[in-house]
UniProtKB/TrEMBL annotation, chain A:
Gene3D superfamilies: FAD/NAD(P)-binding domain, NAD(P)-binding Rossmann-like Domain. It comes from Forsythia ovata. Its EC number is 1.18.1.6. The keyword Nucleotide-binding does not apply. One of its GO terms (molecular function) is oxidoreductase activity. InterPro entries: FAD/NAD-bd_sf (IPR036188), FAD/NAD-binding_dom (IPR023753), Ferredox_Rdtase (IPR055275), Ferredox_Rdtase_adrenod (IPR021163). Its main location: mitochondrion. NADP(+) binds at residues 168-171, 212-213, 224, 396. The lineage of its organism: Eukaryota, Viridiplantae, Streptophyta, Embryophyta, Tracheophyta. This is NADPH:adrenodoxin oxidoreductase, mitochondrial.
UniProtKB/TrEMBL annotation, chain B:
InterPro entries: 2Fe-2S_ferredoxin-like_sf (IPR036010), 2Fe-2S_ferredoxin-type (IPR001041), Adrenodoxin-like (IPR001055), Adrenodoxin_Fe-S_BS (IPR018298), Beta-grasp_dom_sf (IPR012675). Gene3D superfamilies: 3.10.20.30. Its cofactor is [2Fe-2S] cluster. This is Adrenodoxin-like protein 1. Residues 104-207 form the 2Fe-2S ferredoxin-type domain. It comes from Forsythia ovata. Pfam families: Fer2. GO terms for molecular function: 2 iron, 2 sulfur cluster binding; metal ion binding. Keywords: 2Fe-2S, Iron, Iron-sulfur, Metal-binding.
Length: 483, 220
């Protein structure tokens, strides 16, 4: 770690910058954006950082992804707010890079750091994926968390008693928990009213969490699993046969503490239940070694899903990192009226940005964006960096971005030290951007405008004994911001 | 979603992190026990990090990442009280009055090996103490056991053993900590008490490798 010491020395010698400070625009105000901004501001005393987001509200998935019943996970917002309040930092919301302003235009005004995450989804690519009632888990999560893009998702929770969730990661568990938790408990959280109302009317009593592989490979972590296993009035169903482990499984568990604790929790749940179902009790089923083959269309309701056709799988491959689920040709069905695909997010490409469509990330080395050019030596795009899911792919927790940001900021600091990024350039920064947006009639939302939204949400929440009632439409958000 | 686990690099300054008396005690216990493998397994848990520490005395000190589950006794009757985040220094001064609040010595060692020695009032968490002394310990959830960013490595196994066992909740968060070791704890859950006077806490290094091809180094 001597390199960090060296870089700190280099950056210190650049602390007193001339009147034309280095300007960096961070695109995306989630954890990646904010941790990067914080570290840049700390390491370079003359740099100005603007954080741009296409939503009027900051904080990315901390606001729109973390479940309503996990308020402690959102406390990091306090730290991010302090970053925004730094004199050399500005939040500029309601600005979409790619439509309000193009990337080339932005790069004429700033050095840019893209941290806009992954707003789309991996597709299964199987028949029936377009049927009504089949959603990405991301859309469902955005819906109950009040993201304005999914305000009108209106999932039908009243025509069926069964939901199938494909995937067994923490997002899948969140969705299952929100569908199964007693609504009196949810009513005290910051879940949006439109979602709470729908859940109160919901007829869903059974949720299946379906994974291609076994309990040892389930992608969730212990805390979330413990929580979903402990939901009030929910019986847990796991087939004993699915718990049989192979020697390869044992090795995997021995090397990985998380896998072992997850497996232990699942097998404990399997051995202790379920007791004979009580009236009104809901069910959570863990289904392992099944991959979806196609979605079945309803006979009564054309264009709507009625079930999932699943193929049994077996794990092949000895290399622990590469064991994959392979179909066995044995099929069965689960009838359901709601399907949530929780198989991973995917980043969205924008014009003039090198993009790897297969991996769904921006090609980079240590956060420096690689040019599209083919040649022997890697060529970097000057003044263009990435951080977060756009850089690494959509995995990890909030804290993963701490280390990701450190790496990208180290690259930026090195480039400042080498003179690759200079403050002498005539980049107009914030003034230029605001002028351009004004000429396009785009109403920006600054941090104190967000604070008006924040205050309004808390006040509305107060009336309902909730921490906040989120404003979930573009119109409401922009209206309150401009008051 | 599981983060890869890495070894922290050796600190710049050679730090001796096994107290001499703990080493002697380990040797004494080992000698009095039958060295058959079965008996070894019943030696109290500190002997495992003890063996590791002895190895490290011989070569350059480094921290091995935890790769197997360290069995922890969950005694719910001794469950650590969840510490209220951020009792301010001002409140503490107000409380002192005629009674001097007892303080213990704590040393933080950062990822470059630089040490900072501070005094911490009994009852304060290591996270609060770090923030009050401008030590760069992250605390995203401000002490509510909802993250792993205040992860610290207790450098002396004696001190580690004098801490209350981690709860399930703390272990759940430790699962996700980067550079996890056998003497890792969350800083917000280590509460200053006289028995851990002189405790040395290392901040885990960020030896990240975010290779674009998704290469995950195997834990070792």
């Amino acid at each position: 770690m001597a390199i960090f010491g060296k870089l700190r020395w280099i950056s210190r010698s650049f602390t007193s910058l001339p009147a034309n400070p280095l300007r960096i625009c961070v695109v995306g105000s989630g954890p990646a954006g904010f941790y990067t901004a914080e570290k840049i501001l700390k390491a370079h005393k003359g740099v100005e950082v603007d954080i741009v987001d296409r939503l009027p509200t900051p904080f990315g998935l901390v606001r729109s992804g973390v479940a309503p019943d996990h308020p402690e996970t959102k406390i990091v917002i306090n730290q991010f707010s302090r970053v925004s309040q730094n004199d050399r930092c500005s939040f500029i919301g309601n600005v979409s890079v790619g439509s309000s302003v193009s990337l080339p235009e932005l790069r004429q005004m700033y050095n840019a750091l893209l941290a806009y995450g992954a707003e789309s989804d991996r597709a299964l690519g199987i028949p029936g994926e377009e049927l009504g009632g089949v959603y990405a888990a991301r859309e469902f999560v955005w819906w109950y968390n009040g993201h304005p893009d999914c305000r009108n998702l209106a999932p039908d929770l009243t025509s069926t008693d069964t939901a199938v969730i494909l995937g067994q990661g923490n997002v899948a568990l969140d969705a299952a928990r929100i569908l199964l938790r007693p609504t009196v408990e949810l009513a005290r959280t910051d879940i949006t009213s439109h979602a709470l109302d729908a859940l109160e009317e919901s007829s869903i009593r059974k949720v299946y969490l379906v994974g291609r592989r076994g309990p040892v490979q389930a992608a969730c972590t212990a805390k979330e699993l413990r929580e979903v296993l402990g939901i009030k009035d929910v019986s847990i169903h796991v087939k004993q046969a699915d718990l049989v482990t192979t020697p390869a499984d044992e090795v995997e568990m021995k090397n990985n503490r998380i896998r072992r604790r997850v497996y232990e929790l699942i097998s404990k749940a399997a051995s202790s239940g379920p007791s004979p179902p009580l009236p009104g009790q809901r069910e959570l089923h863990f289904v392992f070694f099944r991959k979806p083959d196609r979605f079945l269309e309803s006979d009564d309701r054309s264009g709507h899903v009625a079930g999932v056709h699943l193929e049994e799988t077996t794990l092949e491959g000895d290399d622990l990192g590469k064991r994959i689920a392979v179909g066995t040709g044995i099929f069965d069905d689960i009838s359901c009226g709601l399907v949530l695909k929780s198989i991973g997010y995917k980043s969205v490409a924008i014009d003039s940005l090198p993009f790897d469509h297969y991996k769904g990330i921006v090609p980079n080395v240590g956060g420096r964006v690689l040019s599209d050019s083919t040649g022997d030596l890697p060529q970097y795009e000057t003044g263009l960096y990435v951080c977060g899911w756009l850089k690494r792919g959509p995995t990890g927790i909030i804290a993963t971005n701490l280390y990701c940001a450190e790496e990208t900021v180290a690259s930026i600091s090195e480039d400042i030290g080498k003179g690759v990024l200079t403050s002498n350039s005539s980049k107009p920064g914030r003034e230029g951007l605001l002028q351009l947006l004004d000429s396009r009639n785009i109403r920006v939302v600054q941090f104190d405008d967000w604070e008006k939204i924040d205050a309004e949400e808390k006040e509305l929440g107060n009336l309902k004994n909730k921490p906040r009632e989120k404003l979930a439409t573009w119109e409401e958000l922009l209206q309150v911001a401009s008051e | 979603m599981a983060p890869p686990q890495y070894a922290a690099p050796p600190p710049k300054r050679k730090t001796e992190y096994l107290e001499k008396d703990a080493l002697q005690l380990y040797v004494a216990v080992a000698c009095t026990c039958d060295f058959g493998v079965g008996r070894i397994m019943f030696i109290s848990k500190f002997s495992r990090p003890g063996a590791h520490a002895i190895k490290s005395m011989v070569k350059a000190p480094y921290f091995t990442p935890r790769t197997s589950y360290l069995p922890v006794v969950h005694n719910h009757y001794l469950r650590t009280l969840r510490h209220e985040p951020f009792c301010t220094g001002a409140e503490k001064n107000a409380d002192e009055g005629s009674e001097e609040k007892e303080k213990i010595s704590v040393t933080f060692v950062d990822k470059d090996g630089e040490e900072k020695h501070i005094k911490v009032p009994v009852g304060t968490s290591m996270l609060e103490a770090a923030h009050e002394n401008d030590i760069e310990l992250e605390g995203a959830c401000e002490g509510s056991l909802a993250c792993s960013t205040c992860h610290v490595i207790v450098m002396d196994v004696n001190h580690y053993n004098r801490l209350e066992d981690p709860t399930d909740e703390e272990n759940d968060m430790l699962d996700l900590a980067f550079g996890l070791t056998e003497t890792s704890r969350l800083g917000c859950q280590i509460i200053a008490k006289p028995e851990i006077d002189g405790i040395r806490l290392a901040l885990p290094a960020a030896t990240r490798n975010f290779a674009v091809d998704g290469y995950k180094p195997k834990p070792h």
